[in-house]
């Protein structure tokens, strides 16, 4: 790799979360439990949507894809973060650092587009219920999922092609527990001001614009419902509250990480942990506990499990 891109640096140094042995054990337990919750919670949604025919609708297909992306996004950083807790020197190779950055932005871009697709689905379902089955058919659902993946890959590649060819010949301390474009770019042995602006515009401003677009769209849906029937407003708000919560959990840390990068190491670490750990573990809980259909399916599955135990 060094000969290919003229780089001297073959590995990067990551930042440990803590040097206290007691805190390391607490964080190991904390993150291990949360990561297990991320795996089980998101896979539960995926397999429930796949095997329960009542959930073979665009809303739940998009939700299953969101759960897969949450699991993938978390897996780009959390397993390594856990394994590095007891390591004296957190080292990541040049190749692995580049791959980590690439997949973070692929999964992040896909999740961003899936949230837009889910907002569009709710708009059609609430504001145009008579046309829902016509507009949100299987072809449209497939188109939205494919478009999300194309956008995510394009978003990552548009930054990756510039970073992979930068010369790295000096400092190699990333200053965080994971690799990301803004931090790695600053380690390059060249003027990267224009590239830093491109990354900020690509990740930061797009995140900010998408966030406000989604919030405005949800407000528009609520206003539309109120104009037609005020008695249905509370029901619509209850339905959208889960989506709004997920949007806030995902986009607010992104905006701080890319529009206002590294205010302090502790704050930067906090927002990164929210994006990679807290949001992926809360999303399944939000969508299952605040969704009537999912609660019905969970009740039915638990009854089937009880009946199976009684038979055996």
TrEMBL record:
Q: Which family does it belong to?
A: Belongs to the G-protein coupled receptor 1 family.
A molecular function annotated in GO for this UniProt entry is: olfactory receptor activity
Residue stretches spanning the membrane? 25-50, 62-82, 102-120, 141-164, 205-225, 237-258, 270-289
Keyword Cell membrane present in the record's keywords: the answer is yes
The record's function comment reads: Putative odorant or sperm cell receptor.
Q: Which UniProt keywords apply?
A: Cell membrane, Disulfide bond, G-protein coupled receptor, Membrane, Olfaction, Receptor, Sensory transduction, Transducer, Transmembrane, Transmembrane helix
Membrane topology classification: Multi-pass membrane protein
Native organism: Muntiacus reevesi (Reeves' muntjac)
Could you tell me the superkingdom of the organism this chain comes from? Eukaryota
Limits of the G-protein coupled receptors family 1 profile domain: 41-287
**What cellular-component terms does GO give this entry?**
plasma membrane
Report the InterPro entries cross-referenced here.
Answer: GPCR_Rhodpsn, GPCR_Rhodpsn_7TM, Olfact_rcpt, Olfactory_Receptors
- Cellular location(s): Cell membrane; Membrane
- The name under which this protein is listed is Olfactory receptor
Gene3D superfamilies documented for this protein = Rhodopsin 7-helix transmembrane proteins
């Amino acid at each position: 790799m060094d000969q290919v891109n003229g780089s001297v640096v073959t590995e990067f140094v990551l930042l440990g979360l803590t040097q206290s042995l007691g805190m390391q054990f607490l964080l190991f337990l904390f993150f291990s439990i949360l990561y297990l919750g991320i795996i089980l919670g998101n896979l539960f949604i995926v397999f429930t949507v796949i095997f329960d025919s009542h959930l073979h609708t665009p809303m739940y297909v998009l939700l299953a894809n969101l759960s897969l992306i949450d699991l993938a996004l978390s897996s780009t950083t959390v397993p390594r973060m856990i394994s590095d807790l007891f390591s004296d020197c957190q080292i990541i190779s040049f190749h692995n650092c580049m791959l980590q950055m690439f997949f973070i932005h692929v999964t992040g871009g896909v999740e961003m587009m899936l949230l837009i697709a889910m907002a569009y689905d709710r708009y059609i379902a609430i504001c145009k219920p008579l046309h829902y089955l016509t507009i949100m058919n299987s072809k449209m659902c497939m188109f939205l999922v494919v478009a999300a993946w194309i956008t995510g890959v394009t978003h990552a590649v548009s930054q990756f092609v510039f970073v992979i060819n930068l010369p790295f010949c000096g400092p190699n301390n990333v200053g965080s527990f994971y690799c990301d474009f803004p931090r790695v770019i600053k380690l390059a042995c060249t003027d990267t001001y224009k590239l830093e602006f491109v990354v900020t515009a690509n990740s930061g401003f797009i995140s900010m614009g998408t966030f406000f677009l989604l919030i405005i769209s949800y407000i528009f849906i609520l206003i539309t419902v109120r104009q037609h029937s005020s008695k249905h407003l509370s029901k619509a708000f209850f339905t959208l509250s889960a989506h709004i919560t997920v949007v806030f959990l995902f986009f607010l840390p992104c905006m701080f990480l890319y529009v206002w990068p590294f205010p302090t190491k502790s704050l930067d670490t906090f927002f990164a942990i929210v994006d990679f750990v807290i949001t992926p573990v809360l999303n399944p809980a939000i969508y299952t506990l605040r969704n009537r259909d999912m609660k019905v399916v969970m009740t039915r599955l638990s009854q089937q499990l009880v009946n199976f135990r009684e038979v055996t």
